[in-house]
Design brief:
The radius of gyration is 40 Å and the shape is flat. By secondary structure, it is an all-alpha fold. It is built from four helices and no strands. It has helices spanning 44-55, 72-101, 106-138, 147-175.
């Protein structure tokens, strides 16, 4: 390579025709005052730290959930159903393998697999029923004709009315509370 094609951090190349030659890497560097807009060159440890910061990428990026979290009762029944279904599949596999091997355990395992299938079906239906009950009691925000929303509105109105009547009763008690008192002090 020619000297005019080599560039590095210690070398500076001037435009051709200006009369300035390329600085040699072994030439002494000018360490005088720098222009205010040129920051000083970072030291080696700082360069490594800066390179580490630039190379740092988090393992994951927090993103907002696309769907809301399941309510606690629904999640509990879903976990229960998942465990029951997993055990049922395991029993069915053991029953199948015992049948292939001609083991005496095959018949009891087949019976327990049938019973587990009934329980697993009940667990899956339980998730659906629990979800429906929760939606009916607590309302679905996206449905404009939600009955739960109307119930909440009625409960709020009843609480507001109860507070107003309680305040009125308290006011009456304060005004007429003194026995034999003809006027306010």
């Amino acid at each position: 390579m020619g000297s005019d094609t080599v560039t590095g951090t210690a070398e500076r190349q001037e435009a051709p025709g200006t009369g300035a030659e390329t600085a040699s890497p072994t030439a002494p560097r000018h360490t005088g005052a720098r222009a205010p807009d040129i920051p000083p060159e970072p030291t080696a440890p700082r360069r490594r730290a800066a390179a580490r910061e630039e190379a740092y990428r988090p393992l994951w990026i927090e993103e907002p959930a696309r769907r809301r979290r399941l309510p606690d009762p629904v999640r509990t029944s879903a976990v229960r159903a998942g465990l029951v279904i997993a055990v049922t599949l395991l029993q069915a596999m053991v029953a199948f393998l015992c049948t292939l091997a001609g083991s005496w355990l095959a018949f009891p395992m087949v019976l327990s697999s049938v019973a587990s299938t009934v329980v697993a079906t009940w667990a899956a239906v339980d998730v659906w029923v629990t979800r429906q009950v929760w939606n009916q009691r607590h309302g679905v925000v996206s449905t404009p004709s939600s009955t739960a929303r109307a119930l909440r509105r009625e409960r709020r109105k009843a609480r507001r009315h109860a507070r107003v009547t309680e305040r009125a009763q308290e006011r009456i008690r304060r005004q007429g509370g003194g026995a034999g008192q003809l006027s306010h002090p």
